[in-house]
Design goal:
This protein has 496 residues and is an alpha/beta fold. The protein has 14 helices and 24 strands.
Length: 496
């Protein structure tokens, strides 16, 4: 172990943990994450001519792999701030994130994106584009002392989905990351015997913190997938890797729907294998979008698991969660996690605590507007809480809370009811501006084979108040979604 290297900012040195297995193939796999990250840090400092990156931003554009994790930890150990880029984003969105965060460098996988990175570099001559295969320190830098990185330092910038305009870069410190990880380790029972299958994108809190960082901090095993394949995941539930069976799986509702569909199309003997294997997992979590109750119930029927739903966002990490042990109440996101203060203010969910982010990068006015005078972050989500403390998300104040004819309508409530109709495969409800009504409730629906719209409206009127029933309808073959599987409601609104 290198005595000149300070410990990571919020996790113990990897070689001091037992049970750590990185079941990921790549050039660093035989050398280990700890050594790889140390070399990466030294190579970065050498290439950029620095002794300490001192919170300089470094973006990386790397597939889900050990190389991704080496780059992440290498930037942290060199004193920098990580800016993970979405591998599916087009050039203009990548360029925006790099410019907005004022990155000094971009790390990229030459084999995957060499040509695209060269094109992007033409637009950003002030940024150093560094292929991973060249980031090896010279002999003179092999033992260079790395900077001490305190918990107060900025650590990461993640870009929001931009529901109210251009995406904003949410800055978290190492102390914020520590708080986010520690509470999930305790509340979700992470341990060194766990083996997580990781199918989520690595530019989002769900994938980076809830799965990857928790697995690292717990000394657990993890397998990263660059593409989601439902049948492959079912088979991995059954067989694991190298004698290890998975214990943890986290996904968005869309993925659970695809797994349910794959199960339905499997042979009867495979269906039995899949269900029995899934029952053996210790924890299955759903998040990042509302989980339709029919999906929760079907998954429970197939696997015996009542999916653990939780609530969080880029700016706050996780704030609410159903319990690991105890009642997981369908349609709710549980109770506040330790350390998080959660309140309703004029119907809006507000959160305060050590996991809450520091600022929006380079946007002091937006930062100030997002916090109350007593330090609560204004999430922009509407909610309600039961008498015994279970929280329900009603939707975004700006997107999912519609105002029609003087009434407030939760788009998520209408969507949930429509998903109960046997002919509705999926649905998105939006508010279309209207000079008379303020907004008209509109629904884009995916119907099952040979179904029609004719009976949806009367069926819904029997279940909801008349003002909640959509006045505008559109049948579509699919709904537009972002990389996390969330429906992009702005795109749906353009259809009406």
């Amino acid at each position: 172990m290198d005595s000149n290297r300070p410990p990571p900012a919020w996790a113990p040195p990897l070689e001091q943990r037992s049970g750590t297995l990185w079941d990921i193939r790549g050039p660093h796999s035989s050398q280990g994450l700890d050594a790889g990250a140390t070399r990466m840090a030294r190579a970065l400092l050498e290439r950029l001519g620095r002794e300490d990156l001192a919170e300089s931003r470094v973006a990386y554009w790397i597939p889900s792999s050990l190389e991704y994790v080496v780059a992440q930890w290498g930037v942290w150990r060199a004193g920098g701030v990580t800016v993970p880029l979405c591998t599916a984003h087009p050039l203009p969105e990548l360029e925006y994130a790099i410019r907005d965060s004022r990155c000094s460098a971009v790390l990229f996988d030459r084999e995957a994106w060499g040509a695209t990175a060269a094109e992007l570099a033409l637009h950003l001559p002030e940024v150093a584009f560094l292929p991973l295969d060249e980031l090896v320190p010279s002999p003179g830098f092999e033992l260079v002392r790395l900077p001490a990185v305190g918990l107060e330092r900025r650590a990461q910038i993640l870009y929001t989905s931009g529901t109210t305009g251009k995406p904003k870069g949410a800055v978290t410190t190492h102390a914020n990351l520590l708080a986010q990880v520690q509470v999930l380790l305790e509340e979700w029972g992470w341990n060194s015997n766990d083996f997580a299958l990781h199918v989520l994108p690595l530019h989002h809190t769900h994938g980076i913190i809830n799965v990857l960082s928790c697995a690292i901090a717990a000394g657990a095993s993890i397998e990263l997938f660059q593409k989601f394949d439902a049948r492959q995941i079912w088979e991995r539930f059954c067989s694991g890797r190298e004698g290890r069976l998975p214990t943890v799986f986290m996904a968005v509702p869309t993925i659970y729907s695809k797994l349910i569909e794959a199960h339905a199309h499997a042979a009867p003997e495979d269906q039995k294998r899949y269900s029995e294997a899934a029952r053996r997992l210790r924890l299955m979590v759903s998040g990042s979008a509302a989980l339709p109750i029919p999906v929760l119930e079907k998954w429970r029927d197939l696997t015996g698991h009542t999916l653990l739903e939780r609530y969080g966002m880029t700016e706050i990490g996780m704030a609410l969660s159903n319990p690991l042990q105890g009642e997981r109440r369908p349609g709710t996101v549980g109770k506040p996690l330790p350390g998080s203060e959660v309140r309703l203010q004029d119907g809006e969910i507000q959160v305060r605590g050590p996991s809450v982010f520091l600022e929006y990068f380079g946007k002091p006015d937006a930062t100030a507007e997002s916090f109350t005078e007593d330090g609560f972050f204004k999430t922009g989500d509407a909610g309600e809480v039961s008498g015994d403390g279970y929280w329900k998300i009603l939707g975004r104040n700006s997107v999912d809370i519609l105002k029609t004819g003087g009434y407030k309508v939760s788009a998520l409530e209408v969507e949930a009811e429509l998903r109960l109709h046997p002919d509705v495969s999926d649905v998105c409800v939006v508010g279309v501006p209207d000079p008379e009504w303020g907004e008209r409730v509109a629904a884009a629906v995916i119907l099952r084979e040979r179904a029609t719209l004719e009976d949806l409206e009367p069926w819904l009127r029997a279940r909801l108040a008349a003002y909640k029933v959509p006045r505008l309808w559109k049948v579509v073959s699919e709904l537009p979604r972002n990389a996390m599987g969330k429906v992009t409601k702005k795109a749906v609104l353009d259809w009406f």
